[in-house]
Amino acid sequence: MKKASRTQNSRSIPQEADALLAELHLPSESGTKPSAAPVGEIRFGSVLKEYRSRARLSQQALADIMGVSRNTVINWENDKNKPEYDVLPKLCSVLGLTLGTLFGTDSAERLSPPEQRLLGNFRQLSPIGKSVVAKMTAAMLDEEFRAKDMLMAASFRVFAEYGSAAAAGSGCEFSDLAPAPLILRLNGRNDCADAVVHVSGDSMLPAYRDGDLLYFCYADTAEYGADVVCSTGRGAAVRRVGNDGSLYSINSALPCDMNTEAVNFRIIGVVTGIVAPKDIPERADDALLRDIFHDELAAFREKYGLSD
User: How much is the pTM?
Assistant: First the structure.
């Protein structure tokens, strides 16, 4: 934010204003540099106008209270310039809002009453007491993190994700690309699965839809009624095993061509289920999971000749 020029009559910033500005990471007369986004990027004017209206004050009335011209208030509300720092506490008091609200830095992360009490108690401690609390907190956090790591390690596993889609229609050509490691949540239905593969096409509707990601365990045979991922004359495909051992598509509108698919046919694995949205870890946990499964991911890359 470009600082407005001061007149010779400008007062120095009161201590309470300087402290509030420090909490907002705004520059003060003491030379503190901003560490957050410039104030000019925040919709200061709209907040000011809203709270002036709530206070049932006209622009002229607010100007009179603040000892400035009406044009000055208009410029504030149009974000053409900002008030001098030394008038901010009075402005907030008149309008009944905090500096955080005025500059858009208030959030849902504001301290709750219990947190405020804890912080107040902490500030009353001696330096030695504060050091003891800091060490205790660090130890407790370490235990919390260890417990979370153990839970995450027991709740997820590394699967092989194949680049080739398995057709629920005409076969898909296999890709020569090695499978990629994919970390997914264990759900009881995928404990025995070895890998996952994407579905392409609608011939297995309503069981599987185009774009579904399927779990499967490696196998070269399957029992009646099982769904399998197989290699056919047309490439990879998903089919169901009939009572006579033949393979067919569920969707009668899209029957498979057995004469073509029978060439170089072999079962690759048995489908064990569909990857559900809840099986996919939150993006925020990606880095933590990669760290927890570092050794498994390294072994996977070595097995399939993948680079880091």
Answer: 0.56
